[in-house]
Design brief:
Elements: H1 22-43, H2 51-89, H3 93-109
């Protein structure tokens, strides 16, 4: 089903608006600058940071997060495998059989 587009409003002419002066532009830019400075302070961004410094800091933070995640996952995986091996050696009836099969599958598919 086709719908008619909404009616277009006529553009208001700027003839009634007062002319823009350099003083008005300067005041507007000063207000904008002040607002941006307050925003940077609220976000904890030092004023001395340039775009290059911000990019470098973000890149290093991303690398650190990635390495931390990889190392943490490796440590947790090692702990989990050690725990499974310990439980398999305890010869628990149901869990021991499952873990023994799991450990065999891991050993088969582990490259030597």
């Amino acid at each position: 089903m086709y719908h008619d587009p909404p009616p277009r409003h006529k553009k208001e002419s700027n003839e009634d608006a007062p002319p823009v002066t350099n003083a008005m532009l300067k005041q507007t830019l000063d207000e904008l600058n002040e607002t941006l400075q307050r925003l940077c302070i609220a976000l904890g961004i030092p004023e001395s940071y340039t775009r290059k410094k911000m990019l470098r800091r973000s890149l290093l933070a991303g690398i650190a997060r990635g390495l931390g995640s990889a190392i943490g996952f490796t440590i947790l995986g090692a702990i989990l495998i050690s725990l499974l091996a310990y439980l398999a050696n305890k010869n628990l009836p149901i869990i021991g059989e499952f873990l023994a099969r799991l450990m065999q599958m891991i050993q088969v598919y582990t490259p030597k």
